[in-house]
Amino acid sequence: MRTLSKPGSSQARWIGILVFLIVISLGELLALILDYQNNFYLRQYVSDNLSATIVITVGLLVFASGTAFIVSKLGAAGAAGARVPAFARIGSFVGRRYKLIIVFWILLFAVSLPLSQQLSQVVTSSTGGGQSGNSESARAQNLMAQEFPHPQANTSAIILLQGSDVTDNATKRFTLDLEKKLLVPGALNSVENVTSVYSLERAVLTAFYLQQGATPAAAQYQANQTLWSYTLSTYPIPIPPAILQNFISPDNMVMIVLVSFSKSPGSFGSANTDPILKNVVSMRNIISQLKGSEGGPSQTYVTGDLATTADSSLGSEKDLGLIEPVTIGAILILAGLFFFAIATPFVPLTIVGLALMITEGGLYLIGKYIIPIQDTTTTFLFTIMLGVGTDYSIFLMARYREERVEGHDKAQAVQTSVTWSGESIATSATTVIIAFGAMTISSFTLLRSIGVGLGFGVLIALLVSLTLIPSFILVAGDRIFWPRSGKRFESYAVKARKKRSERPGYFRRAASFSVKRPGLVLGLTLLISIPAIYISLTGVTSYDFTAGLTHAESVDGLAVLEKSFGAGQIGPTQVLVQFPISILTNGNLTQGAQANLENLSWNISSLSNVEKLTGPTRPDGLPVDATNMTGLTAQQRLAILGSIGSDRRTALVTVLFVEEPFTPKSLDTVNQIRRLVTSLQRSDASLAQDTILVGGASASTLDFSNETVSQFNTMRVLTVAAIFLVLLVVLGSYPLAITGILSIGLSITWAYAATLLFFNNVLQSGVLFIIPLVLFLLLYGIGMDYNIFILTRIREEAQKGKETRQAVVDAVDRTGGIITALALILAGALGSLVLSSNRLLEGFGFAIALAVVLDAMVVRTYLVPAIMSVLGQRAWWGPNRLRRVRFDKKSEPPASNP
Predict the structure, then answer these.
(1) φ and ψ of 650, to 5 deg
(2) Longest dimension (CA), the chain
(3) Fewer CB within 10 Å, N or C, the chain?
(4) Cα(174)–Cα(198) distance, rounded to whole angstroms?
C-alpha cells in the first residue's frame, strides 16, 4: 500500500530553517563572486546608494525567510495528504480577491508604461565592458593609453573607397569633395578631422610653401592648387611610401579615409538617437548623394568600431521589427490549434504583453541606476517573455480546461489549476531565474545584462501567470475558449471523456512502449549520445563577434580591409616593454635596450603566424641600429621615437599576424608570444628586469575567453547545484532530481552538436564560442520546464495511490498534448531568432528551439518513462522529511530490468 510522507510540523520548521541558512549562504557567496573591488557598477551603486544597499540586504533576508516559509509549508504538505498548502492558498486568495488582483496589475501597468517608453534611453549597443582590469591585455591597454596617448575608442570611422585604380584623378576629385562635404558645419556631429592621402599631401605642401616665405593664406591656396594639378605620383614633395602604404593598398584598388570625432558615443548609444552614432548613417547618406552626382569609386564602405557599433544597433531594431510579428503569429496559430479556439490564444498574449510592458518599465530603472541594458537583451526579452510567459499561462489554462472536462465547476477548476499547475510553473520559473541569475556574476556586460533582464522578466511572467490569468478566467469563465464555449464546451467535454476512455492516444502508447521496453529506449539514447558528445567536445568555435553582423556594411568593409591591407591589419598585437630606466641617451637608443628589444623582436618574428613586426629596432620591419640614428632616414627616426613612450622607458613593438586576429591560430600565437616572453625572461637576466605585456585585439579576445570560461564554470556549478536543490525540495526524490538534471544535459548535448554541424558545415558561418556557454545556462533554465511539468504530474498521480509505471503512463497521457504544444510554441518564439542578422542570436535561436523540441518530444515522452520504469519504487527515494510518496514493503513490483 502506498502512503504519503508525514513529516511533523517541527521537522518542517527545521527544513525551513535549513533553507533559510542555505539562501543566506548563497547570497553571501554571490557577493564574494561578484568581487566588490573589481566590479565598477556594483562599487559605484553601493557607494552612491547606501540606503538602497540596506534595502537590498533586507530584501535578501525577506526573500530567504519567504523561501523558508514556503518550503516548510511544502514539507508539511505531506502530513495533510495530496495537497500543496502554499499554492492552494494562492488559489484560494485568487478566488476571493480576483477583482482586486486585476485592478492591481492594471495600476502597475499604468505606472510602468511611461517608463517602458524610455527604455531605449538606457540601452547600449556596445558589447564591451566585460574584461577584468587585472588581465594582461587590460594592463597593456592601460599602459598604452598612458604612454602613447590616442583618441578614445569609437571616436573614428574608416571610409573605404574601392575601384580599379584609386590613385586616378576621378577618385582624387571624389575624395576631396567628400572631405569638403563631411566638414561642412552641421553635416556631422562633433567632427574633428578628415584624414586621407590628399589631406596629408596638403599639409606637406602648405609647410613647404610657408618655408618659401608665403603667407599662411597664400601657402594654403598654393597647396590646394598643386593638389588639384598633380597626381600622387607626380607631386613635387611625395608622401613617404611608409605612410602611403597605410592609406592605399599595394594593388592601388582600395583607399582609406579616416574621419575622427571629438566625442565618443554615450554609454547607452543608439544609432537613431546618439549624435555620434548617427554620424555613421549621415556619412553613408553623404557618400551616396556624392556618388549619385559625380560617380566616384565602384564601392564605398563606412566601417571601423564606430560603424560596427551603429550597425549592431540598427540590426537589433530591424531584427525586432521582423521577429515580433513572426513570434506573435507562431503563438496565435499554435495555441489556436491546440485549444481549437479563436479567443484562447489572445488571452495569454494580451496578459503577457502587459507583463512585458511592466518588465520594460522595471528594466528602465535597472538600466538607469544599476547596470547598462544591452540591446541584445531587449531582443531576447521579447522572445523569452512571449515564449515562457505564454507557456506558463497556457499550461495553467489547459489544466483549467482539463478540470472543467472532468465536470468540476469554474471556481474549483481554478483552485485545482493553481494548486497543481501553479507549483509546476513556479518550480519551472525558479529554475529559469536561477540559470539567468547565475549570469549576473559574469564580468561581461552583455551576460550581466541578459541575466538581470531575463531573470526579472521571467519573475514578472510567473507572477502574472499565478495571479492575473486565473483572475481573468474567473471573470470570463469558459468564454476564453470561444467559439467552443457554453453548450459547445459541454459537448466537447463529453466527447473528450468518451474518446479518452475508448482509445488511447499517441502519448499513452509512447509511454506504455517506454515502460515496457526501457532497455531499448536507453540503448538508443546511448547510441545517439556518443557521437553527439564527440562532436560537442571537438567542434570548432569562432571568437569574432564582429563577424556576427553578417549582412552589415561595416563587416563587409572589414573584409575588404583585411583582403587589401592584410588580415593582421584589422587588429594588430602590441607588445609593451617597460624598462626600469630611460632607454634614450642623446636621442639614440641605449645599447642594452637595443639588444633586449632586438632579441625579443627576432624571436617573435620567427613565429609562423607573424607576418610583420615593427618597433624601435625595426621601424620598417627590418633590423636597424637605433643606437646611432644619424645614418637613418627622417621617417625611420620618427618611427623609432614614436614607438617609445612619454616616460622614455616604455617601448612599443607592433606585431601583425598572417591570419585575422580572431582565428584560433591567432589566439594561439598570443599564447606562443607570452610563453616566449616568459622563457626569455628566465634565460636573460637583463630581460627579467623588464615588464613585458602582450595586448591588442587578439590578446583581449583570448583573455576575455579564458576569463569567461572560468566564470562559466562557476556559473555551471551554482546553477546545477541550485536547480538540484529546488527539484529535490519539490519532488522529494534524489533519483528524480538527478533524472531532471541529466536528461536536460542530453538535450543540450544533442542540440549543440546539431548546431555545430549546421552552422559550420551547412551555413559555414561558424558558432561563436560563447554560444555553448550561454546555451548551457539558458537550457538548464528554459529546457527544464517540460521535465518539471511531467515529473510533478507523475508525482501527483503517484500521490493518488497509483503504481509508479501506471502513474508515469497516466501523467504522460494527460500532459503529452499540452507539453508538446507548449514546446512548439516556445520553439516557435525562440526559433524566430534565426531570422536575426546577428549570428549570436541566430545560433541561440536554432540551438534553443531544437533543444526544447527534443526535450519535449523525445526526452520527456520516451526517455523519462524508461528511466522511471527502471527505477520503479526506487524513483521516490529521498530525504525522509521531503519524501512525497512512500511504499509499504512488497506493495509494488520490483523495477524493470533493462
Answers:
(1) -110, 125
(2) 112
(3) N
(4) 11
Over 60: is that where the pLDDT of 38 sits?
Answer: no
Q: How far apart are CA 314 and CA 132, in angstroms?
A: 28
* Contacts for 670 with CB less than 8 Å, ≥ 6 apart: 573, 694, 698, 699, 702
Provide φ and ψ at 570, rounded to 5°. Answer: -65, -45
Return the residue matching grid coordinates 598604452.
Answer: 144
Residue 25 banded pLDDT, cuts 50, 70, 90: very low
Grid coordinates belonging to 209: 610653401
CB contact set of 472 (below 8 Å; sequence gap of 6+): 102, 347, 351, 480
User: Do residues 442 and 483 touch, judged by C-beta distance below 8 A?
Assistant: no
Strand bridging mode 123-124 / 373-374: parallel
User: Beta-carbon neighbour count of residue 97 at 10 Å?
Assistant: 14
Distance CA 441, CA 437 (A): 8
Q: What average pLDDT is seen over the chain? A: 77
Quote the cell numbers at residue 738: 538527478
Give the pLDDT confidence of 103-157 residue by residue, as tens digits.
999 999 999 988 888 887 777 655 444 455 577 888 888 888 788 765 443 467 8
Cβ-proximal residues to 103 (8 Å cutoff; 6+ apart), any chain: none
Q: C-alpha grid cell for residue 368?
A: 538607469
List the grid coordinates of 451: 541575466
Q: Tell me which H or E stretch contains 303.
A: strand 299-303
Contact status, residue 200 vs residue 289, Cβ threshold 8 Å: no
Q: Which amino acid is at 472?
A: F
CA-based R_g, the chain, Å: 33
* Contact by Cβ (8 Å): 746, 773: no
DSSP SS3 for 297: coil
Task: Tell me if 810 sits within 8 A of 746, measured CB to CB.
Answer: no
Cell 560617380, residue? 295
584: amino acid identity, one letter: L
Query: How many other β-carbons are positioned within 10 Å of the β-carbon of residue 281?
Result: 16
CB 834 within 8 A of CB 846: yes
Facing residues of 504 across strands?
Answer: none
- Count of helices and strands (H, E) across the chain: 32, 14
Cell readout for 830 is 525562440
SS3 call for 574: strand
Contacts of 71 by beta carbon, 8 Å cutoff, 6+ apart: 15, 16, 19, 729
Interatomic CA distance for residues 873 and 880, integer angstroms? 15
Could you give the CA distance from residue 815 to residue 807 in angstroms, rounded to a whole number?
12
Give, in degrees to the nearest 5, the angle at Cα 91 between 88 and 95.
Answer: 140
